[in-house]
């Protein structure tokens, strides 16, 4: 029998700051000499000029392949072929979570190094040693795990500030789950995504991400509404991206992200961001835990003020959608799902009951605290799909 180990994983280098993308070539040149860039047309439209200039300054070629919408198995395989065709020795994913994940997965299969350049702080995908693969309809298919993290993660906070605020809101939803899941994993002494038992480091970073978010999220979101880079935004971007990334990978995932994966089985949720669905998973996890009433009420108030959903209504579901709710519960509790890291057994029926219960619970708290009543979310921008988990 193998002796259990505790382990921490992290990217080789993390770079963050206003104008950081102007130095991308400098850092990529330390990793490889023949890069292949993966980026969708929208992202390339606002970042391509700076990336090209930075590569030219570092005497690197600019070889780019356009990315679509989902990190599917077919998309990853096509990228591998492009890597071989262009003789690339490092792949650079520039864009949202799925772009970054596709680059990581292709880089691993092709046996080259990989770089994450997120243009939004909407998930903690960029730092991790895993990717999420979807089907063509955007439904979760599988996690793919890699033996190492990206060699470089670089995020330009001015680009984050210029992006629609909804993306940063989604990042808050994703990152808030990190501590809730890490503490559950620690209580269960369960295995983390890093392939070992949780470390004090991973758990502590998860808690730090939670604390930084509660202190800085609201002023940071206001800054982004005015396209400004402030200290609060810098702190929130680091919490959403680095702290949450290290925290989830080496601290552990539990119910919140498993329920997110289950929610992808409901067509009504396909227009939502990863973080919006994760926040519903966090709500359901708090209910499953029987968390203190004050903690749940504070979580509802804070995430409502941030702009995240806390009811089924807001994600397009109702209590009468029995077929979809059962499908969600079944998918969330499949063998191997992270919900089994909870320190107690969770069944599909438990998940359904928890999801149903948050409707009345959230409505009553929001009414008591003078917060807006729930309305269905309308996705104004193309969803940024999860990359990391």
From TrEMBL:
GO molecular function: glycerol dehydrogenase (NAD+) activity; metal ion binding
Binding site for glycerol: 124, 174, 257, 274
Catalysed reactions listed for this entry: glycerol + NAD(+) = dihydroxyacetone + NADH + H(+)
Binding note for cofactor: Binds 1 zinc ion per subunit.
All residue ranges annotated as the Alcohol dehydrogenase iron-type/glycerol dehydrogenase GldA domain in the record: 11-157
Coiled-coil stretches noted in the UniProt entry, renumbered to this chain: none
Chain residues that bind NAD(+): 40, 97-101, 119-122, 128, 130, 134
NCBIfam families for this protein: PRK09423.1
Protein name: Glycerol dehydrogenase
Source organism of this protein record: Cryobacterium algoritolerans
């Amino acid at each position: 029998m193998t002796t259990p180990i505790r382990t921490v994983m992290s990217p080789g280098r993390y770079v963050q700051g206003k104008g950081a993308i102007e130095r991308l070539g400098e850092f990529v040149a330390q990793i490889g000499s023949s890069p292949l860039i993966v980026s969708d047309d929208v992202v390339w439209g606002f970042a391509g000029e700076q990336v090209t200039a930075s590569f030219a300054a570092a005497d690197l070629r600019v070889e780019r392949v356009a990315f679509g919408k989902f990190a599917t198995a077919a998309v990853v395989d096509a990228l591998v072929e492009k890597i071989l065709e262009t003789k690339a020795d490092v792949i650079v994913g520039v864009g949202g979570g799925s772009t970054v994940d596709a680059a990581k997965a292709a880089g691993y299969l092709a046996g080259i190094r990989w770089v994450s350049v997120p243009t939004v702080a909407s998930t903690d995908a960029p730092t991790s040693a895993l990717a999420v693969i979807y089907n063509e309809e955007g439904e979760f298919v599988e996690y793919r795990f890699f033996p190492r993290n990206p060699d470089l993660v670089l995020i330009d906070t001015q680009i984050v500030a210029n992006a629609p605020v909804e993306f940063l809101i989604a990042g808050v939803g994703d990152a808030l789950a990190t501590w809730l899941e890490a503490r559950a994993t620690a209580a269960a002494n369960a295995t983390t995504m890093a392939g070992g038992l949780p470390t004090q480091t991973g758990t502590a970073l998860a808690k730090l991400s939670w604390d930084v978010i509660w202190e800085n999220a609201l002023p940071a979101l206001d800054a982004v509404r005015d396209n400004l880079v402030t200290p609060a935004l810098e702190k929130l971007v680091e919490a959403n991206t680095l702290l949450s990334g290290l925290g989830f990978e080496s601290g552990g995932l539990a119910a919140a992200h498993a329920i997110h994966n289950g929610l992808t089985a409901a067509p009504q949720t396909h227009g939502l961001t990863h973080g919006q669905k994760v926040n519903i998973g966090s709500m359901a996890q708090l209910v499953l835990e029987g968390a203190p009433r004050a903690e749940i009420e504070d979580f509802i108030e804070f995430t409502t003020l941030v702009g995240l959903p806390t009811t089924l209504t807001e994600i397009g579901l109702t209590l009468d959608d029995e077929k979809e709710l059962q499908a969600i519960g079944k998918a969330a509790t499949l063998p191997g799902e992270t919900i089994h890291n909870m320190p107690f057994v969770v069944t599909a029926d438990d998940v359904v009951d928890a999801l149903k219960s948050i409707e009345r619970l959230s409505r009553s708290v929001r009414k008591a605290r003078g917060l807006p009543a729930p309305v269905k979310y309308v996705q104004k921008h193309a969803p940024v799909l999860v990359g990391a988990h």
